[in-house]
Amino acid sequence: MISRKHRARILTPVNGTPASKHAFRWACQLARHSHADLIAIYVSEVPMEYAVESIKGRSNLMEGEEILRQVEKIAGSEHCKVEASMIAARNAGPALVLEAETRSVDLLVVGLPYREGVVPVSVGSTADFILKNAPCQVIVSREPALSHAGSED
């Protein structure tokens, strides 16, 4: 029996921001051209005063469901299949790294908004955690500087 390597898997965190949508479109194109499986994850962050499993602490459930519907629509327009799901966690970064490990992901595509400041590129805590701890390659898609940014959806 000939053993086959698993199909490549690409994971993209989604949160509804323009940077997230742009990164997801890019992940769709990568998945389509490389025949990889595409996974989109929305992380519903649960405050410490609630159990992670509690619905009470997940005030953003409807927002998450809407974002996942938008992601599925984008995937359709890009002629790409996506497995879109929501997970509950205390912090998005560790949850996404754990998902990447659990699902044997080969690539994480992360959208990063442009932030003005002293440092040309400001990386938020989620992206920073992913860059430091991901078990796979990571591609960061940063938005262009505001003076060059166009409207995108």
What features would you describe in this structure?
- By secondary structure, the chain is α/β, with parallel strands linked by helices.
- It has four helices and five strands.
- The chain has a five-stranded parallel beta sheet, with helices on both faces.
- α3 packs parallel to α4.
- The chain starts with 8 loop residues before the first strand and ends in an 11-residue tail after the last strand.
- The model has no long low-confidence stretch (mean pLDDT 86).
Total helix count? 4
Distance between the termini: 46 Å
Query: What is the chain-wise order of helices and strands?
Result: EHEHEHEHE
Sheet with the most strands: spatial strand order: 3-2-1-4-5
Cα radius of gyration in angstroms: 16 Å
Share of residues in strands:
15-25%
Structural class: alpha/beta
Helix share, percent: 25-40%
Largest sheet: 5 strands, parallel
Shape: globular
- In round numbers, the mean pLDDT is 86
Instruction: Tell me how many strands there are.
Output: 5
Unreliable runs: none
Describe the SSE topology.
Elements: E1 9-13, H1 18-34, E2 37-45, H2 61-77, E3 83-89, H3 92-102, E4 107-112, H4 125-133, E5 137-142
Parallel strand pairs: 1-2, 1-4, 2-3, 4-5
Helix pairs in contact: 3-4
Descriptive terms for the model:
about 20% strand, 5 strands, alpha/beta, single chain, about 150 residues, five-stranded parallel beta sheet, about 35% helix
Give a concise summary.
The protein is an alpha/beta fold and 153 residues long.
